[in-house]
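Pasting as-is:
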Amino acid sequence: MKIAVLSCIHGNFEALNAVLRDLDHQGAEEIYCLGDLVGYGPHPNAVVEMIRSLDIPTCQGCWDEDIVEGLNACECSYPSLLAEARGKLAHEWTNARIHEEVRDYLAQLPLTLKRDDLCFAHGSPQNQHEYLMPEMNAFAALERVLAVDARILFCGHTHVPYVRTLEAGTMTVRLHHTPDQREQAFTTPLRRIVNVGSVGEPRHGRPNATYVIYDTDGDQITLREVEYDYEKTCAAIIDQGLPPIFAWRLAQGLEFAERADDPSHVCER
C-alpha cells in the first residue's frame, strides 16, 4: 500500500492541488496531513475546506493551534525579532479572515495520529513547536520515536525534507543512583524519522512543493518534489495585502528555517 504524507500547506491552494494530482498519479491509497494548514499563504479557508472534503486524517500544526489559542508569544518559535514581526502580521491577517467553522475544525485536530507502527506529528509527538532537525542528538531523536512506540515517525515543521535512520543497536545506561553503579543494557531496533518538507512554503532552496510516499509493501520512502504555478500564489499574496516578503521567499524556496537557537526546546506555555 502507498501512503502519502504531506505537511505545512500554509494557505497555498495552488500547491495543494498540484500535490493532490501528483499523489493520485503515484497511486497513493491513503493520505495523512501533518498540519499547518494556514498561515503565511493567501487561501487558508480554501485549503482547510479541501482537506475536510477529502476526509484526510490531519494533525494540528503550530499555526493551526495559534489561530485557535492566540499567537504564541514564546520566543522559541522565532529566531529573530524580524521573524517574529512577520509572524505577527501573518497571524493577524489569517485570524481576521478565517471562517468560524474552519477555526472550530482546527481546534479539534489531534496532536498525533497512529497507524500500526507509524506515527504522524507536526513538530514532534511532544509538541507542535519542536523542530526535529537532522543533526539533532541521536539519543534525543531516538527518544522521540520510542516515546510513541513507533517504527517510523513522520514530521514536518522545518519545511526541509529528510530521512534519518537511527540504526539498531544496544545502549548501555550506568545507574549511578545504585550502590554498585551497575549497568543496564537495552536493545533498540532500527527506527526512522521522516520529515516530509512543505507543500505550501518549501525552504529547501526551490519553490517546488514536497511530500512523501511511503510504500508499506517494500518499506520504501520516496521524497516527492512537485512543480506548480507558484507565481500565481505569489501574486495572490501581494493582492491580498500580505507582506511581499512572503511572496519573495516562496519564489526563492529559501533554505533557512525559522527555528529556535535550540531546536530541541519544547514550548511550555
